[in-house]
Design a protein that fits this description.
Elements lengths: L1 H29 L4 E5 L1 H11 L4 H8 L5 E5 L3 E6 L2 E15 L2 E7 L1 H4 L4 E7 L2 E5 L6 E6 L2
Antiparallel strand pairs: 1-2, 1-8, 2-3, 3-4, 4-5, 5-6, 6-7, 7-8
């Protein structure tokens, strides 16, 4: 009888571990953006040099901007900082479409963003590429936490 109870306890412990592993894996895929992200200056400038069709003045402005934005993202909200100063707190968002490494995001902050914008992010490893409106290149954000 003790052997049977011991096997049942071991089976229960293994089942619990598998449940936790599966839950964590599923949670990560439902919320692939959770964490802290920072604009990657070097990768973004490489994108700008390769795909951007900018004037010298635009190029100078952009070079001084990249690498300074940090985003803290949960499953439903984004808080953004520029040079560690708060820009927007708890902006709600929802992933409305996932296809491979492409995410389509809708933000719900009409007063801050001038509407309810939608954008697409392309995930590549621990970074994502965010196409910049009106330009032909993307800003690159990489996970830092």
């Amino acid at each position: 009888m003790q052997i049977v109870m011991h096997k049942i306890k071991n089976l229960a412990a293994i089942s619990l571990c598998l449940f936790l592993i599966i839950s964590c894996a599923t949670a990560g895929s439902d919320c692939p953006l959770v964490g802290k992200w920072r604009s990657n200056e070097k990768a973004t400038i490489e994108q700008m040099e390769k795909y951007g069709n900018l004037t010298e003045e635009q190029r100078t402005v952009f070079i001084n901007i990249f690498g300074k934005m940090t985003l803290q993202i949960t499953c439903s909200e984004v808080t953004s900082y520029y040079n560690d100063s708060l820009v927007a707190k708890d902006v709600r968002y929802k992933i409305i479409k996932k296809e491979g490494n492409l995410l389509e995001i809708r933000y719900y902050a009409p007063d801050i963003l001038g509407g309810t914008p939608t954008n697409q992010k392309t995930m590549v490893g621990d970074c994502y590429y965010l196409p910049l409106e009106r330009f032909t290149f993307s800003e690159v954000f990489c996970r830092v936490e």
